[in-house]
Amino acid sequence: MNVTTLPKPPRVGLVSLGCPKALVDSERIMTKLRAEGYDMSPDYAGADVVLVNTCGFLDSAKAESLEAIGEAIAENGRVVVTGCMGKEAEVIRERFPDVLAVTGPQQYEEVVAAVHDAAPPVPSPFVDLVPEAGLKLTPRHYSYLKISEGCNHRCAFCIIPHLRGDLVSRRPDAILREAEKLVAAGTRELLVISQDTSAYGVDLRHKSWPWKGEEVRAHMTDLARELGKLGAWVRLHYVYPYPHVNDVIPLMAEGLVLPYLDIPFQHASPNVLRRMRRPANDAKVLERLRSWREQVPDLAIRSSFVVGFPGETEEDFAYLLAWLEEAQLDRVGAFKFEAVEGAPATSMDEQVPDEVKQERFDQVMAVSARISGEKLARKVGSTIDVLIGAVDEETGGATGRSKADAPEIDGEVHLRDAEALRPGNIVRVSIEEADEHDLYGVPV
Ligand code: SF4
Fold first, then answer.
1. Closest ligand 1 atom, CA of 240?
2. What is the pLDDT of residues 223-254, one digit of tens each?
3. Is the CB of 158 under 6 A from ligand 1?
4. What Rg do the C-alpha atoms of the chain give, in angstroms?
5. What is the pLDDT of residues 96-125, one digit of tens each?
6. pTM metric for this prediction
7. Which CATH number is associated with domain 383-443?
8. Which CATH number fits domain 11-118: 3.40.50.880, 3.30.428.10, 3.40.50.2000, 3.40.50.12160?
């Protein structure tokens, strides 16, 4: 049996100087890098690159910043400078010609790009929350918002808890502050990510923090509601179908949160789910989906499934196919079980042969594509909101996403006669055609 050994993620060291605002900037850069799979290094020696967030407010602060850059160069040698002193790039470059990049305050994209150059991310489907294409550089109009790190579950195929530890949630006020800044900087869509968004705040005992003269609880529902008030689309990823998820459905009905849930079911057969040690593994899931759709008829559900998990029998697989027919999910991603070093499932008996995995994978993909095609065909003739991602000046066409499409993993909406549009616009589009993945239409 082939066992995949994961490469070590690159490590970033951080020296953060200056005022609380600079600290928030550092936190935001680090959140983004962590969301992309980077690790933090507590010391110079273990870092692949050191980020120095400088302060240039007073001469003494500048001197301190230069000293910090000098120390990082001497101790590590691979240094990216950002923050207020970035405005004086010449001063820094003159004194430290070896600095890899200098970016100014709030130039998040540039800082992250410089880190990508200095220590390229190592994409891995086993641990990444952000799709590989999203790593390149998220365009300004959508942003990933990481709300926690680690996971309290112990799924048998997963090594996240081993790599990242138990769930550690960020404070809700810090998340909201970051989200507010992103929206002010042009983000039209916030993609909430974590290993288990439905478990957000459990480790903080769902305590409250002051926010805008009121209190906000560290709880998925409260956080989603506050995020929804910021005026951007809010999309929830990696939600498990626990009973308390019922409470976010009304937020979708109110229009505060997108009618979209990314629920990684991974399987449907109780036998396989038990072996996988999956959370929220209960028989009422289909009932719950039905009730959610009654409340929010245009709710789009995306999910992913693993086929060929050790011990998956023909009956288990038939159960999964029947379940998919019943659940009518909008988007489905399938994976063939792969043994990963360190995951308990790797040493389980009853491993499924590769050719059986491939057959089952093909079947799941075929069923899902048909269901997706049927569901998209029903949208022809309707008018929906589309967030524009790119405009092609030569053809006059544009590409965007509907509320049912997350970037990189779901479908797109292709528009004709759209030359006047710009990336980040949200427009009404009349749908004229559909295929298994995408929609085609014209702005109205
Ligand atoms: S819920 Fe399971 S699969 Fe997801 S991160 Fe936690 S242990 Fe891994």
1. 1
2. 999 999 999 999 999 999 888 899 999 999 99
3. yes
4. 23
5. 999 999 998 777 778 888 999 999 888 777
6. 0.82
7. 2.40.50.140
8. 3.40.50.12160
